[in-house]
């Protein structure tokens, strides 16, 4: 194992972790407003297939990205309407969204399975990429990865240093109190949910347009679920989310690492690694019940009835 | 303007009508979709819903699909009634198949009477173990059951693949990822000569009746219902949360495990990668459609099995992608959740209240 | 409406010439499915007037105030603000007019600071007009003696302090009408005095105050005028100074006021429940730790525990009832049996019963029938080989319903379809029906109508007279003095000395509620808990 190898592995970890990062950024905003959206897989897959189809038919990956984001937002809107206006159970509705998105994406993409498109090419940033080691790891990625860096910074800033972030926190902690002081709780939650949807769609597009530029049924393989665990793992903090996403990315490419080290283990056993790692992480984090009660948005998962006053 | 007003008491009518309304809306959605794809909606609907019941062979195949759906759904109904969000039926089913197969392969060349019972028991216990681990993590470490059970679904899948590619692969199978074919001693008896339906469906129906009885008549069932409806009240009443959680989860795991081993010791007859077309996930919808009641699950499992069969037929005869079944299931659940709104609220026209200006 | 007059040491309020009333309500009516909450309410407030809104639970005070604050819209009637007709559709509009409200259950965010909490209520325009919010908060805090630190996190504040933050919030928005919903129910008597000083200062400056209460001696002390509601209607508008608490009570509840009074005090005999050196850390992040609690509960007595919410009552009840079973066995003894680490079910089998604070969603499952809810705590005699005798349960539940005059459609009625008072009567009946040796009761008449409150009081006294030991926790000091034989107060997890009611008074209990009995030099003993 030499430096070059480590550099390549870290580069790959970032690339592999990016879809997770994108979805988790969206879900953390959604959860901060008090809404638990389990429909990540469904939204991601719909984003992936629509993005792919858009790029395939128009020849432009850019259109693909836009299409994917819009699709994610539309999917999340269905969820938002059921949960916010019809008072449906958040867990059941999220599951429904996943099952629906999975099925619909397979249906819609049936004709283009296995086709490829021209994805995004890596953009090598001049000067910065010449920094030894770090340069190769951070500054030789494609456009979407750079976008994910920017988005992470933006989300962190908004959540912690703006009035919007304050409003979000308030709604997540106590929607009845927020309503009583005049905050439009439903509007805030709609926006948060749709942001989550947009990010899920974007993440899906990344998978089908950049990571492996093709469409395959169920290509997200549970990343949406891992992202949900990631948000808890990160205690709803953006910095931790980034770290966690890349760690999972690393776990996903373990087979390359071990191959590079000369070990050979059954690929099926290695494929389990990200999922086992997720379980492991969840156990460690949730074991401190006190801390979790403290950090989780207090109204997470509970319905909001504006007719009920504090 | 139409107003939405809360009902004083939930509507009993809507509680029963909502699933039917949801099915109806789903069919309309489907018809529109098929028209858009230039497929005749009526023919598609016929293939999806009527054809599967049209002859003895089709009914037999439908029963084959209904068994695992019903078994898993009964277990899940109890879980969701207790507010335990077990999404792991799929994984528990796969591990049940894996464990059961491992046992069955011990009897490939033998004829003893206890081969089948042992196989079934192995499958049941495997399913229980697979449900036990996330349960333990939840009770000891407070980890989120939804996420752990889903992760275990993926782990189960890869374990199955590893098993079928490795230790359990048929040495004389030319390298295909399949186990040896099970001997007759480890196969479930068939119901009739026509088709592959086996006594597994009888187990499923009996277990469904048993679960319904426990839920309605026993103290344990009462505790489960209170636990799911109002956890604070269950705590106040002194109900043992740990005991209840174990009882419900292990029961669900056992049923899913039985479903899995019944597949390999039944219609498939060996261990292969593609044991389940997502039965464990579909069972979630079956449970909801049946209003989380084991008897309701009987009806909804029938419907879902018909849909699965119909999907196969529609693909063969009209070229509609099999993914349509999964999509319908999702749409169905959406419509169900939407229609449930009317259990607690009603639409009213501008009121004729004497108190208006 | 207000004539020149002297109110003890308060300054007279002059009626300004030629100005319209600040707020006028004309025939306000609000209907909910199944009940008429407000029936043609007429009311009027002048600038600087402190006006009480009186009425028992269920009279319609809350609904009326929600109408003024824009949370609900009336079905009929008019609202006039300073003479102009207005429609207030949401709290934001109410605030823009200058209406501020302090809720009974505060709308504060615990994980944010005081300053951030107040900032959230201000519009962008308002925020831009204030150079430094923290500074403004400090200034107002000085001016009105509120003692509020803008940088403290709300979760670290006491209830009294939180209420002052809520008032501060209204002040920052230059409030012209301040509405307070049962403000004194969460304060110690001394804190109430402090609140009245602030309110008087505001009134002198021209701010109108609408003061909702059912505490009559407070109303006569501070209010210029009062509107009395009963069953949704205005029964009287009067000057409280020309009335006595007794005459006001009669206007509020009719003749029932006389019946619920003058109960005899008893002396208990053997020790039923003994709590020794109970030290327990709270299981919740912002809870209260119990510190070295010692007391005896005697058979044939009612022991009252006073205290402002959030001082450990919830934790104490959980530890005694068994919902929290982390204490060491010998810390709690029931008839000489150590039960500190037993679960709630086992303690119930040994003769303990519990009427919890939350009736719907703890004491009873909302969408289950009354007979099912009976089984919740009363399973003795109804279970054979694990199977439930539903027929027997239904018969028994029907008997409870008729014995305690619970108004409902029958044993099949869902718990959530009952009114608060009727559900509480049912729960009380269910617990008493198990002939407990020890009954723990938390805030039994909170939010309950007068008739039901009377029935509950008499049921408790009757149970005591039959020899049971009753532990009564309540925020309502008057209720405690009415029912209890001996009393104590809890503050910050410490328990005061226990005294006979005859030997103490509201003032001393009030002081104890504020913690004057806590000896700051002694270290509370922290012991490990049994696992």
Give an account of the 3D structure.
- The complex is a heterotrimer of chains A (310), B (357) and C (531).
- Chain A has helices at residues 3-32, 40-58, 61-85, 90-108, 134-138, 143-161, 163-173, 175-180, 185-211, 223-233, 238-252, 254-260, 267-271, 273-287, 289-295.
- Chain A is mainly alpha-helical.
- Chain A has a single domain (3-295), classed as ABC transporter involved in vitamin B12 uptake, BtuC (Orthogonal Bundle), CATH 1.10.3470.
- In chain A, helix 3 (61-85) runs antiparallel to helix 9 (185-211).
- Chain A is globular and about 60 Å long.
- With 357 residues, chain B is mostly helical.
- Chain B has a domain at 64-289.
- Chain B has a two-stranded antiparallel ribbon with strand order 1-2.
- In chain B, helix 4 runs antiparallel to helix 5 (115-141) and helix 7 packs across helix 8 (219-229).
- The relative contact order of chain C is 0.11.
- In chain C, a hairpin with a 2-residue loop joins strand 14 (332-334) and strand 15 (337-338).
- The model of chain C is unreliable at 1-18 and 522-531 (pLDDT under 50).
- Chain C contains 18 helices and 23 strands.
- Chain C is α/β, with parallel strands linked by helices.
- Chain C has three domains: 47-66 and 90-259, Rossmann fold (3-Layer(aba) Sandwich), CATH 3.40.50; 270-351 and 436-531, Rossmann fold; 358-435, no CATH class.
- Chains in contact: A-B, A-C, B-C.
- Chains A and B meet through helix 4, helix 10, helix 13 and helix 14 of A and helix 6, helix 11 and helix 13 of B.
